[in-house]
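Risk register update: the risk of archive-format incompatibility is retired. Evidence:
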Amino acid sequence: MENNGKKTSLSIWLSLIMAILGAFFMFALSGYTYIGCICFLLSLLILVYGYLSRKKKKGPAVALSAFIALGLCVFAVFEIPIIAACGGDENPEADYLIVLGARVMGESPSRSLVNRLEAALDYARDYPESMIIVSGGQGEGEKVSEAAAMETYLLQRGVAPSRIIREDNSTSTLENLTFSFEIIRSRGDDPADGVAIVSSEYHLHRANMVAESLGADPLTVAAETDLKLMMVNYFIREGLASVYMFVFGF
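Archived output:
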């Protein structure tokens, strides 16, 4: 009985610690929602396993473990191509570079968007003939569109205004690429050839899938996320998004 009491107390404390961590990642930090959700899920699982252990319910415990293992295997199947695509292409020279938007804090690019813009700046220096399409509309809490914030950032760092095209109506990756491709066609060019996409490394696989669904065969440019824990958070998100796309489509 004393042993069971110690196990119960330990499981409760571990569950509480995971719940506190979950609340910290979800509510005290920005950009760590999925890590917070995993912490809450672990908190719940610790309580459930603790209960099953006390009640000596081996059957349900084995079934739950099998279900979790199956879920992890499915997740891994969808996560592997995301990781494989995160390096981008070796020689991504193209007539157009599409910079996919991310959150803007008031009028300033978020950390993730800065990472993408720095990759775009490197690209602009390496391929001075390429046009740059900055793509992203204005979301809740943003004083300007993502495209406007990106354009300002690039102009302040020496990119010629004549090289930048603003697409500021999109609200999703699908719209980013759909509207950007429409701009390319309006200029007499074909988005099926001569297009590169810059986005965060964790987002490249999904962006490439969306572009291919629209009839393009883009090159990809990886923007390295400098906050590694945030990068892990978004790799988790992209795995879940890939599962969603597989089940429900774009």
